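Sequence of 3D-(3,5/4)-trihydroxycyclohexane-1,2-dione hydrolase (Paraburkholderia gardini).
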Amino acid sequence: MNQRVLHHDTAPANEATQVSPGGTIRLTGAQAIVRYLAAQRVVTEDGSGTEPLFGGVFAIFGHGNVAGLGEALYQHRHELPTLRAHNEQAMAHSAIAFAKAHFRRRMMAVTTSIGPGATNLLTAAALAHVNRLPVLLLPGDIFVSRAPDPVLQQIEDFHDGGISANDAFKPVSRYFDRIVHPAQLLTALPRAIRVLTDAALCGPVTLALPQDVQAAAFDFPADFFAPRVVPFHSPAPVAHELDAALERLKSAKHPLIVAGGGVLYGRATDTLKAFAARHGIPVAETQAGKGSLAWDDPLNTGALGVTGSPAANELAHRADCVLAVGTRLQDFTTGSNTLFAQADVIGINANAFDGMKHRGVVVEADARLALEALTARLGAWRADAGWTQRAQQLGGAWRETIGKLTHAPQREGVLPYDADVIGAVQRSSARSTTDDIVVCAAGTLPAELHKLWRTGRPGGYHVEYGYSCMGYEIAGGLGAKLARPERDVIVMVGDGSYLMLNSEIATSVMLGAKLIVVVLDNRGYGCINRLQQACGGEPFNNMFDDCAQGPPGAPAVDFAAHARALGALAEHVANVGELEAALQRARAADRTYVISIDTDAARTTDDGGWWWEVAVPEVSSRPAVREARAKYEAQMAARERGDVRDAGDNGDSGDNAAND
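Predicted 3D structure, token representation.
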């Protein structure tokens, strides 16, 4: 990557400002924001020094931010780099991915104009909120003075003159403030940093910035802008919560650890490995927690839930105690609350809101601190030896199955499916356990990757599945590459997501942030098409062949040609063998490289999975829908009875669960 672009110069900013005898400095609101952000530091990962908390600011300028923030960012362009993007939603996805790749220890800000520039950020704000990831959103806003009211792009509320489009950010922000005077920054900015760096509060922060306030000056205390090493806040466990957890865990014979994203964000991977080994407890991983243990660790039983492995799901179904570490236990993890409904749950989470889900006993604490405290008091206690041995056998058998699924011989004239492509990508690495970062978000691919991707180190699996947001993939890959320029970032994306949001291919070329993008073209929304049919529906409006069409018919999209038009290198391959050769060319290339391959829209990995609740119409004239409704009602009745084996044994692996 072009390091010059993201170079952080520690020299003083080039501002025509001086500290007054009274210790104040006169700055515009925008200058104060940028100067404050540039002053925030964080201890480096190896502990040897400090680096900027903010890796930069993604900006698309317009009339709501170009004169104020734009000028301030120019003044500080060496200390706080400004990166131009092509789509507001996408650049926010990139900023979020940057933070995720840094395990929430570094982050980025994003600024837009008012109106559509601002509202384009809403989807990304929701994504960050769901995934508990930090991003600072700085949308422009209307004039506080209201002198030019209504300004271009202004949303007018007929009952409240104080509302603007930015009020839409309130439900998708962990902290929201509209800055109506520069002095308010003295409280708003420290609050924003606290939320962004607090394990319990972490998520998107929105500071709405009226354009006249950005340009207005104020005498700020000079020491407000002194460089500061930011501490990260995580709670320590308290005695009575540990007591309750220990009572529940010590009475268990068949415990299971569910490792969520909090294990990675809390830097608790080594602690988890030691805890599991000492006490003989198998580990299953959520989408956000994959990589908490190396893929070949004897106690790693693989992915859990609707997209889970047969090993992890069998153990979860039989467990008498589930230790849920750093997970919010969403329905894909719990099989719509059927997978381990019979187990006692202990929720270890920095946020009690997440820890108390599934009626769990809560330990409101940082993952590492909680596991250390538990193991210190558990002493020599271990899970039942037969349980541990069974878990190791199941995990080992599943790893062998993964090898077979991803190395299956290819048949002439038969399109490959996702497992074939995943195998080719991993074989293209020079290491037996890949050092790549794989990035994905929506469709069938997250299910296949959750089951099959071999993650050798934390951070190698970067899949956004809390919000399952189509369009995150390429933009997220850019953010991951900016965070980890030394590693190959492999974006795996379906044709549907590619068509939805691909503009940051051009940004990656411009920044020298090389991506390898593998486009799996199944000619439509193949994943949701399968779900449609599983619910009794006819194929309709998902695959190109089943959509309304004019005389020219469905497009034959040339993804390679499109990517070349954006400045990338690209090619289309006909089979898995050609894909492997193309991946070697991509790894050797000097810029973003896109490879497209046609894949089977119907086939998925049969092994694993669990029931996922999708409501089927109660009334329909179509027999297929009525049959699907009867099956759905039977599954619901089984859940009510606690007969989860029946609920899960419906032949639907759940791989149909999101858009592709």
